[in-house]
Amino acid sequence: MKIERKKEGSRLTVLLEGDLDALSAPALNDLVKNELSDVTELVFDLEKLDYTSSAGLRVFLMAQKIMDEQGSMSVKHANEEVMEIFDETGFTDILELRD
């Protein structure tokens, strides 16, 4: 999986590409733990994300909990398969999802 960051002031956009699974989730987990201290708006752009496993969902949940305390988080451009996973796991009720 490829992770690209775009920082604009206190806004961080994280673009994900490939599969977010048990092998790649630790890298995203590290980003969430180490790079959000001065972020008030976090955006995950999933346009090129093909799949997320439960390991990836845990990272999204952790990021949401952090951002609930210090700002906002949104997820945009999730494809049909990823949206289905979010829907089946109840993440559509947890995350702010945008086109």
H and E order: EEHEHEHE
CATH architecture: 2-Layer Sandwich
Q: Which percent range describes the beta-strand content?
A: 35-45%
What CATH first level would be assigned?
Alpha Beta
Tell me about this structure.
The protein is of the alpha/beta class and 99 residues long. The protein has a single domain (2-98), classed as 2-Layer Sandwich (Transcription Regulator spoIIAA), CATH 3.30.750.24. The protein is 37% helix and 36% strand. The protein is built from 3 helices and 5 strands, in the order E-E-H-E-H-E-H-E. It has a 5-stranded mixed sheet. The longest helix is centred in the middle third of the chain and has 17 residues, at 54-70. The mean pLDDT is 97.
Architecture blueprint of SSEs:
Elements: E1 2-8, E2 11-20, H1 25-34, E3 41-52, H2 54-70, E4 72-76, H3 80-89, E5 97-98
Relevant terms:
99 residues, alpha/beta, Transcription Regulator spoIIAA, five-stranded mixed β-sheet, 3 helices, 5 strands, globular
Short synopsis of the structure:
Helix content is 37%, strand content 36%. The chain is α/β, with parallel strands linked by helices and 99 residues long. The chain has a single domain, classed as 2-Layer Sandwich (Transcription Regulator spoIIAA), CATH 3.30.750.
